[in-house]
Amino acid sequence: MIWCCRCRVSCHVRRHYRILPDDVKSLRAVVNPDVSKIRNIGIMAHIDAGKTTTTERMLYYSGYTRALGDVDDGDTVTDFMAQERERGITIQSAAVTFEWKAHRINLIDTPGHVDFTLEVERALRVLDGAVAVFDASAGVEAQTLTVWRQAEKHHVPCVCFLNKMDKPAASLRFSLESIKKKLKANPVLLQIPVGSGKDFSGVVDLLTNQKLIWKHKTMRDEEDGRTFEITPLDESEEPELLQEVGEARAALIEQVADLDDEFADLLLTDFGENFDEVPSIKLQEAVRRVTLARKGVPVLCGSSLRNKGVQPLLDAITAYLPAPHERHHDLVQWYKDDLCALAFKVLHDKQRGPLVFLRIYSGTLKPQSAVHNINRNSVERISRLMVPFADQNVEIPSMTAGNIALTVGLKQTVTGDTIVSSNGTGARRGEHASVVLSGVEVPEPVFFCTIEPPTMAKQADLENALNNLQREDPSLKVRVDPDSGQTILCGMGELHIEIIHDRIRREYGIETHLGPLQVAYRESILHEVSATETLDRTIGERRHVVAVELAVTPLHSSSCEFAFTEELGAKLSAEIKEAVENGVQSAYLQGPLLGYPLQGVSALIQSVHMEPGTSPAMVSACVSRCVHKALRLAGGQVLEPVMSLEVTVEEERLSSVLGDLAQRRGTVRDIQSRHDDKVLLATVPLAEMMGYSTILRTVTSGNATFTLELDTYEAMNPQDQNTLLKRVSGLL
User: pLDDT (tens digit, 9 = 90+) per residue, 678-696?
Assistant: First the structure.
C-alpha cells in the first residue's frame, strides 16, 4: 500500500531517495531476477518491538534511501499515513522492494496492534518467509504469540531477531526461554552479543567464529552503522567471551546435528574426532535445511535504533529463508506455466483508481493484458504494472512467477481473488475454473457504532468512501439497520474505528458523526427443536406453495452449520439447494433475542415440498421463516466477546490494577515476573474494557502497558443477560 501514496507524502519528508542504485545495469535484471534470488518476507512483531525501525535500516544499508528514517520523527518510508506518523505505530502493511548482495527482497512491514491483525494475516498468506522481531527485554509478548500462530498456520519459515539489545534489561537467555516456552519453538542461536545494555557493541557469529563490532564514532560524525569491523576471534579476547562462544558453538553444532540427519552423518563421518573443525559453510547449509523444514528458527540479535546488527540479519534472510520455488504450493501444479496470481491487498488512489497487489505463483504478468478473475467470473484488463523501489513505483514491462506486483486497472478484484490468464477460453479455462487459491481469512468485528454524514447531501459521498475503505480493509464491515435505516460501522476495536473515522475526514473531506461504541454480541440456542413452516402466496397469476420441515441443534463451535438429510439431498436440484442455503444463512444473521448474529447452531433440513412453478426465492423465504421459528422455540442465550488481557506494571502498583480488574468481571489467570515488573494475565469481557487505557493510566500514574486480544465468545450469566436485555429494550 505504500506505492500509491508516494507523491502525496514526499513533500513532507526531508530526505532524498534514489530510484535504483547506481550500479544497476539492467532494469530487466532487477525486476525479473532468477527465482532462486527472490525472497518474499514479512516483518512481524508485537507493537513497539522495532519492526519499522528495522525496515528503515534495511532500506538504508541496501542503498535505496539516503537518510535513516525514524518513527519518532515521522519520516519513515513504510509508515506514510498521517495517522501512522502521528501515533508512531504501523496501521497498514506496507511493501517495499530492494536488493541485497544480488538478491531481490520483497518486504512487507506489518502492524503490531491487535486491531490490525488482518494486515498480518493477508501478508503472511502470500509471503515465503518472515522475520519475527522481539524486544530483547520483554521476550515473547501477547501480539508476538498471535502473529506467530498466523505464521504457523501458513507454514511460513521464520528467523528471529532479538532487537533492543542496548536496553539495560535486555536478556538473551530470557528471550530464548520465552521463545521455547511460549511459542513452543526451537530457537537455533547463531550469534552471541558483545557487551550488554549501553555497552552493547556487536555480535559474535557462531558459524564463523568472527566478531562483528560497530564502533562509536566521534560526535562530529553521524553514527549510521554502515561500517563495522569483522575480526576472527583469537586468544587475546576476554576469557569469559571465549568460553561463552565455545560453549554456544558446541551447543549449536549438537543441536543442528539432532535436527538434520545429513549434517549428523557428516559430523560422524568426517569430523568425528573434533566437531569444531566442521566448515562454517556446511553448518550454514544445515541451518538452512532446518529452517526450511520448520524444525528450528535461527536467532540473531542487535539494536536497530542504534544501527547495530541489521546487515547480518539481511544476510540471514538471504541465507536461511526460502526462495519462492522452494515453497510447495500444491494448486499451482494445475497451472504450470499459465498465469496464476492471488490478490491480497487493494488500495484506492484518487488519480489511478484501485491499485491491486498480486502475488504471482506461476506464469508471467504483463501490462495491457486481459486476465480472468475466477471468483468474480469476470475478465479485466491490467493497464499498468509496477514494482516498488523504496519510495518509487517503477513501471515494468513484465513480472514473472515468485514476485509481488502492483497493478492498475483491476476495478472488480478484491482481496482473496484468484487471477489467471484469459487466453484460451472454453475448455482450457474450464479446466482451471474450479482450481482457486485459498483466500484470506477475515475475522468477525467485535465493535460497532452508527455513522452519519453532516447533511443528507453528503450521504452519497459517505457511501462511496465506505465502499472504498471496505475494499481496502475487509475487516471493516458496513451494514444498514433495517429498522432505523442508519448506517452501521463494524470494526475490530476502538482504535480501528477511530482510524476509519479519521481517514474519512482527511481523505474524503467528510465530517461524520459516530454514535456510541457498542459491543458486537453473538447469540446461540439452548435446546434442540424441530419446526415446520408453510408459505402459500399468489403473485399475479402465479401461485407459490412450499412447505419446509427442519431441526436446529446447539453446537460447541464458533460457526454455524446446515445440512440436508441424505435422502432429501439426493432428490433436490442444485438450484433449490442454493435457495435453501440462502434462506438458512439469512436466518443465521439475526438471533431470536436481540437480533445479533448466531454462532454454534446446526440446522438439518428434513423435507422441502413445493408445488410446480414455485420460485427459488419463495423457497428461500420459507426456509428463513422456518429457521427463525425454530430458533425462537429453542430458547436463546447471548454470547459476549471475552478478551485476553496482558498488563505489564510495576510491582507496587499491581494491587491497584487487580482492584480495578475485579470491578470489570475479570478473571486472573496468572501473574508473572519480568525483570522488575509484573505481568498480569487475565480474561475480561470486552464490554467492560471501554476506555480502559485512560483508567489504567490513572491508577498506575502512566507506568503500565497493556494488550487486548479476542479470546472467545462465552455465554453471559443470566443476571448480566437480563441487564443487557433491559438496557436494549430501554433504548428501543
Answer: 999 999 999 998 888 889 8
